[in-house]
Structure to design on (75 residues):
């Protein structure tokens, strides 16, 4: 449960950092470009990078939380 809370807290802090523009767009662009090239989809424009990062982060949090919940339920 501690790992669950730590992961969600870290992702929340990262999301706040992205929205508050604490994390540079240059870093985010490289991160998103790598993710999009890895799965073969088009990359977002400079205006869309912050929103794309938030969508990826929300997706990861939902997937990890659901997997954790299923593991807790199964055992």
């Amino acid at each position: 449960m501690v790992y669950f809370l730590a992961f969600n807290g870290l992702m929340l802090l990262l999301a706040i950092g992205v929205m508050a523009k604490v994390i540079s767009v240059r870093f985010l662009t490289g991160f998103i470009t790598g993710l999009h090239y890895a799965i073969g989809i088009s990359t977002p424009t400079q205006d869309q990078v912050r929103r794309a990062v938030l969508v990826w982060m929300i997706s990861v949090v939902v997937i990890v939380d659901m997997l954790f919940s299923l593991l807790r339920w199964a055992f």
The chain has one domain: 2-74.
